[in-house]
DNA sequence: CTGAAAGCGCTTACAG
DNA sequence: CTGAAAGCGCTTACAG
């Protein structure tokens, strides 16, 4: 249908090889005159390079693959933005596939698609891979990296926040403001992230010689509803005077339910949330947050994926406390 | 590096053609025995099909391309979710490219990447293409469709809401609640969407024999900040008693600034917003919205892209008013 | 049921 | 500076 290199060659009276070289801007292989002629004809023929053919013959692709969770956390947007920005800088395309948070079969399907495509690298965003899929990924020889997911073992290359520090600093912030009874809400403690944050929380409490009640910690999956439910469990007369929300949305759930109960924030209940997306700024009172550097996770992750020498190194992106109206 | 069809053929003692047929599940071309043997060897060799080669020879790809705005509106998430869901149903991959809202060069780059890849179809989400890029897209012969963008001419295939109706119904809702002075905030009237909504707004006002002041309409680009600024212009003693926000975020901007002024919502000022994403439900008071069917835009758009007979038809997805606490 | 052969559109040593 | 030729990994009429 569309024009090929051969059509151009014919029209220009040169070989396909020369056309290929001109179009790929290989230096020193042709005269200025040929180049101009070839380029002009290419344009006039509406020529578009066939990427499949190029990838087949060069055996490498200009694509990086991203696997993200279908039940998207609202922070993944920023990570993806970062990935795209960095990809564009390198002239790469991004192919994105959704996979369920805990659906090994969907994960496998997504992985295979990327492997068949022989992508340049694979970024796994906020998803914990099933063991067999991790093995599949590793067997593929394709460079990969986890973003915003850390594993128990540090052997897997990742870019994420230091979740222990997140838990610790959030708690510390509250303790400094005089709170002794601090709740922790909507964290999934079956995963490494949740465990680390709880560990950080406990460390800060113990260091301040504060005791911890088991039911100050309400588990969840980081959702808005988990926040609401947790606050309902605390009730109208919560024992705690401050709460750490596992995500901005969870914290907003806590906030709304607290307001529903007529509890004043921050006067009667302080709230700090983890993530620091724009949501924290559009609610009232605005939420104090432990802000993560999501955009940087995306850019840095992409860079390190492309850098052969860095392939196995894991790294933390910085976090910071942003004090607003809720503490 | 990795195993090819030839390696399998050799190991199985059959031809590459047979392997190809088995692996593609072509019926009636081989004995059950051969098939099982070939499949087993394929697995043991960690065989992964080379998509480039397949696409090159079959001259069609299993990929659909999506171009979205880099300055993402928060509703595009839902559209993209819909696209992915439908793509997975059809065994297709999705390649996503960001392009600036008004950067013709980035648009062209994104388009060319997709065209070179000979994708099966192109979905343009919430972006207005520059004329020359539209021409490029059309010349490519690749099926395409605009999502959540309607053009002046109805000649371009799109899936979107009826923006005239959005403007009309939002206004109508307010009028029914006794409002006579109604503001319209953060709409970009340089685009078709904004123009249609304003037209719907005016029609409803005129039909109710209400007059319209020019400065009840505050332009903007649908952002949170536009909402805040608009409310600042209305001031502490706004002439209007109700405001239509061009997006959920814009409406939240209005809401927050109004609360800042000590204006009570909805008692002193009613607010209705357009979009109806989850944001409307997590703020207090919850926002009444004209809710758009974004997820359906994604699924329907993808379906129609794949359906040859429907390629030129444009369609509206339904809208509905969801009454909450702000009106 | 199976295979030999041609070909998809491109790149790149190799030889001039 | 330029071209002929081989080859990337697969699919698919065609002939048996």
TrEMBL record, chains A, B:
Transmembrane segments: none
GO MF entries: DNA binding
Domain HTH lacI-type per the UniProt entry, residue ranges: 3-58
Matching PROSITE patterns: HTH_LACI_1, HTH_LACI_2
Keywords assigned: DNA-binding, Transcription, Transcription regulation
InterPro entries, per the entry: HTH_LacI, Lambda_DNA-bd_dom_sf, Peripla_BP/Lac1_sug-bd_dom, Peripla_BP_I
One Pfam match: LacI
SMART domains assigned: HTH_LACI
Protein name as annotated: LacI family DNA-binding transcriptional regulator
